[in-house]
Amino acid sequence: MWLDTARPARRPPLTADTRADVCVIGAGIAGVTTAYLLGKEGRSVVLIEDGTPGCGMTGMTTAHLSDVIDDRYTEMIRLHGEDGAQLACDSHRSAIARIESICQQEQIDAEFRRVSGYLFLSPEHDESFLDEEMDAARHACLEVEKLTRAPVEGFESGPCLHFPRQAQFHPLKYLNGVLDAFTRGGGRLYGGVRAIKVHGGSTAEVETAAGPRIIAKAVVVATNSPFVDLFAIHTKQAPYYSYVVAARLPHGAVTPALYWDTHDPYHYVRLQRTTSRELVGDNGDPVDLLIVGGEDHKTAQESDTEERFTALETWMRQHYPAAGPIEFRWSGQVMETQDGLAFIGRNPLDANNVYVATGDSGMGMTHGTIAGMLICDLIQGRPNRWASLYDPSRIRAGAVGDFLRENLNVAAQYGAWLTPGEVKSVDEITPNTGAVIREGPTKIAVFRDEAGAVHRLSAVCTHLGCIVAWNKAASTWDCPCHGSRFDASGRVVNGPASQDLKKL
Ligand SMILES: Cc1cc2nc3c(=O)[nH]c(=O)nc-3n(C[C@H](O)[C@H](O)[C@H](O)COP(=O)(O)OP(=O)(O)OC[C@H]3O[C@@H](n4cnc5c(N)ncnc54)[C@H](O)[C@@H]3O)c2cc1C
Ligand code: FES
């Protein structure tokens, strides 16, 4: 949906070795913000991107900008204490303000607007849920009030919490604008460049798949899920998959706001005006869309894609009866950390000039912006009040249960080495579909393309050897263990894997 109105331009490849103060890897919101802020401070920065900017999860987002943490403030206080919860709120609030000020300073028309946020009850919860959450949010210094119903058109919320001064924007218009400002200021951006290895140390070096190297004083790995880490971070975060539908809406039928319910996994809703040429037609009037997300599950551990989209649509029509036909639907991955906050800072067990930004926890627009501000301070040698809250080495005592649960789940995925294939023979695979088959002691990922040709890959993930599964929604091979994703030809599109699936 975002690509339809703001497709980022392809960028030139890197053809020879180069040097910079800082090399940033990955041009999603985290990498672009980091590169831009460092460039503003006079650092020479090289930003490299495997595909085109914004082609990762930044292009799949719904772009709620919020300081209302997805995992709820009752959890934030339990896990991080009251001081930690206050810092978390402060960091997300500052990130929204920074996005707003970058839009103003750089004159980026990213359709940034302040809106209210409403948290409303799903049937399994009663009002005590809201009371506890309001109390916790107030302790974390949020402005919040309880209402008997949200004062909005087109949606009967029932009792809800109202959080003023939340925001929304068009993520790719923003990304394009920040990238333009970065390159105008002398920043260098290369596309189609995959980093395959990072060597930290006094002179850090980034190796790329095509050969040219980048020599830098510091390296920032902002690839959504870092390929520079085998265990230290990936045992503390888990990949989840989320679905989105966007339906046409009569203008004015629903009040623009951010809407979230208390279900687990929760539903998240916002509006967007679009001038997408296909929708607008000849008269050119913008079209309003209602964007509804939810139905999350662990990546590659469910295959009922159509049922998920249908459930989302049913929920939407029950709650927002004015919603018209669905114009867009998509899906993507979020990295859920064991304690609800991102990992931003020095890469554990690495040289101290290699930095990572990961663990978006479904709030990657703000976490990505926090990453830019925090890593910029660390590289510039300035203290940052959020540094220990987001330290990638941290382990919070209250998160140990979740840590064990998620890692037992990962261990269980290795059982797929022993199970039969999803289908018995390649003949059962229809065009444009993939399935895993067993061949002797190993498993093969087989994709049949539109023309009927069969493409065979090893089904063994190149990160730590789990068996991948076909993702119908995105036509990718996804790994259930730590969320590596590969396109139908086996090319890695999401870390932590840095190598493609082996072609057979
Ligand atoms: C359905 C959905 C809804 C969401 N809704 C919200 C929301 O409402 N609000 C919110 O705050 N967040 C939301 N999120 C989360 C948010 O979109 C992401 O967390 C955020 O976009 C991640 O940004 P990033 O820069 O970390 O990663 P990405 O945008 O994925 O960028 C990483 C980039 O690195 C590149 N890359 C990867 N490996 C390499 C390599 N080896 N070498 C070079 N480049 C590489 C990739 O091509 C990619 O472009 C949502 C996510 C999904 C999937
Ligand atoms: S992502 Fe870790 S084994 Fe596949």
Q: How does this structure look, described?
A:
- With 504 residues, this protein is an alpha+beta fold.
- The protein has helices spanning 29-40, 73-105, 127-139, 171-184, 277-280, 305-319, 364-379, 387-390, 400-413; strands spanning 18-25, 45-49, 64-65, 113-120, 145-147, 160-168, 188-191, 195-199, 204-208, 213-224, 237-249, 258-261, 268-274, 287-298, 326-337, 343-346, 354-358, 433-439, 442-448, 454-458, 469-471, 476-478, 485-487, 492-494.
- Strands 3, 4, 5, 6, 11, 12, 13, 14 and 15 form a nine-stranded mixed sheet that branches. Strands 1, 2, 7, 8, 9, 10, 16 and 17 form an eight-stranded mixed sheet that branches. Strands 21-22-23-24 form a four-stranded antiparallel sheet, with no helix packed on it.
- A hairpin with a 4-residue loop joins β8 and β9.
- α2 (73-105) crosses α3.
- The protein binds flavin-adenine dinucleotide and FE2/S2 (inorganic) cluster.
- Residues 25-31, 48-51, 55-58, 60-64, 194-195, 222-224, 227, 242, 244, 293, 332-334, 357, 360, 362-366, 368, 495, 498 line the site of flavin-adenine dinucleotide (FAD).
